Amino acid sequence: MKTFLRDWWPALVWACVIFTLSTDSFSAEHTASLFDPIFKWLMPSLTHHQLVHLNHAIRKFAHFTEYFIFYLLLFRGFRRGQRGWRWTWALAALCIAAGYASLDEVHQAFVASRGASPWDSLLDSFGAFIAAGVVWSWFRWRGRASTGGGLATETARD
Fold first, then answer.
1. Of 48, 62, 83, 96, most Cβ neighbours within 10 A?
2. Where are the chain's structural domains?
């Protein structure tokens, strides 16, 4: 149990962070009340329409980023301290991130100030997918790429 918690606590905590970000406290109205004064102070010439678009862009970037991070933490959990990269770890982390993205949108459907959007779920999953590509590239570049099941050998670069 101790090693399980050591490997998985970051992903579990991040899942709770994502859940919290899906509550009323982080609805578009609340984030606008936080960001709008900052942007108006930095760029006083911004119109209301521009502020709405800026808030929207920040919120969409947050979707992408939170699931990018979530994938990294899930992958870390599946590795359990082992070296290298495996397809099984990568696909499991990607499936869990995409599944959690879908469940997160279901959760938002029950929050009065939020709405469920399959596009947001797709954006979340895309963030996880890009993280998978980054992790794969990192291990490939580092010369440690391997697949589960012994189908491929480790790649070494000298």
1. 96
2. 2-150
